[in-house]
Amino acid sequence: MPLPLRLQGEAICRQRPVPQARDLLIEIIMLSLKRQFGPDSSASRRMLRRPLHAAAFTLIEIVIALAVLGTMAAGVYLGFNAVNTYAVSSRLYSEAQTAAQNQIDLILSKEPFDVRAAYVSGTFDCTTHKIPVELMTTAEIDALTTTCGVALPTTAPTSTPATSSSYYPYYPYYRSSAGQPISKQAFIYQDPVTGTVLVTGTLTSTVTDTGLTMSFLNSTNSGNPWPLNTRKANVTVTYTYRKVTYGGASHGDYTLAIGTLRTADQ
Question: Phi-psi bin for 179: left (phi > 0), alpha (psi -120 to 50), beta?
Answer without folding.
Answer: left
